[in-house]
Amino acid sequence: MLNYLLIFFAKILEVTLMTLRTVLMTRGERVYGAIIGVFEVTIWLFLMSTVLVGIQEDPIRMVFYALGFGVGILLGTTIEEKLALGLVTINVIVPESEAGRLASLLKEENIGMTVMGAEGYKEPKKIFLLHAKRKRKNAIIKLLHKSEINTVISISDTKTIYGGYGIRK
């Protein structure tokens, strides 16, 4: 039983590291990604030598390996979400009549913005482009909801931003 648990927990650790490494690499953190990759592949090699040896006689090892993989994905994505590495672009569309109030609110919270005019289906609109660290995303969304300003919000991951207000890498 100890062998099964070792396979299970080692696979969880390996896949968690794989998830974090992938996120770091896509966010431009190559050195950290490479360091994590060394540990990840070391665990993988250990697992392959443990799981593959005698797999025909003991197929339950595959079950624990697969279960560890699934749990590792869940754990890795949960940790990545908590770390909230990187940047986002938040697009906020508001009626033109509410734009001044929203701009004041965002300035009070020290949130940089770019505002553009737009034409909505029924009325003129303003589009606010907000670039922020992912760690601030939930606080900004909460602020927008609390304001009770009628908004349409879309969020996208942003790889790189040069210049701007309030963001330093």
Explain this structure.
The chain is built from five helices and four strands. The chain has about 170 residues and is an alpha+beta fold. The protein has two domains: about 80 residues, no CATH class; about 70 residues, Alpha-Beta Plaits, CATH 3.30.70. A four-stranded antiparallel β-sheet has the order 2-3-1-4. The chain is elongated.
List the helices and strands and how they pair.
Elements: H1 2-26, H2 30-51, H3 60-83, E1 87-95, H4 99-108, E2 114-119, E3 124-133, H5 134-147, E4 152-158
Antiparallel strand pairs: 1-3, 1-4, 2-3
Oligomer classification? single chain
Strand content bin: 15-25%
| Major sheet details | 4 strands, antiparallel
Number of domains: 2
- Name the shape in a single word: elongated
Mean pLDDT: 90
**Global structural class:** alpha+beta
- Roughly how much helix do the residues carry, as a percent range? 55-70%
> Which consecutive residue ranges, at least 5 long each, have pLDDT under 50?
none
| Succession of helices and strands | HHHEHEEHE
Number of DSSP E strands: 4
The strand order across the widest sheet is: 2-3-1-4
Number of helices: 5
* Rg for CA atoms: 23 Å
Distance between the termini: 47 Å
